[in-house]
Amino acid sequence: MTELIRIGQGFFEDLATTPETEARLLLDSRLTEQEFAARHADTILDHYMNTFSFDFLREDAEFFAASIWHYLRARGLRNRNQAETKVSRENLMASRPGAAYACQAA
Fold it and tell me: Which domain of life is it from (predicted)?
């Protein structure tokens, strides 16, 4: 799974060169994997044909689009976990007077 996410990250970074494309990819990450792959296979095909005159097979483009979906889902989960950890740490520090001082001193 890690390799799939790494592939997705590379393709996402390559495609998300415009704010519009990045926004579409992020918004569509709420779709199912199959819906996302079907929709963004064309995004991949168009981008690589126009930018590099390179053509993928449709099924390869769908695989790469699915990889992007996995990357975006993993990134979203990681961001949520980081936010939850920060909130938990803040709640702990607020509930223990002096905890903030101890954390700063360390």
Answer: Bacteria
State yes or no: pLDDT of 76 exceeds 80. Answer: yes
The pLDDT value given to residue 15:
95
Q: Give the Cα separation of 69 and 10 in Å (integer).
A: 12
What span, in angstroms and rounded, lies between the C-alpha atoms of 43 and 60?
A: 12
- Its pTM stands at 0.73
Tokens of 15: 């495609």
Distances (CA, A) of 15 to 85, 86, 91: 31, 31, 39
Q: Coil, strand or helix: which one is 52?
A: helix
Which pair of structure tokens corresponds to residue 78? 């990681």
Rounded Cα distance between 88 and 94, Å, is: 10
pLDDT band at 81 (very low <50, low <70, confident <90, very high): low
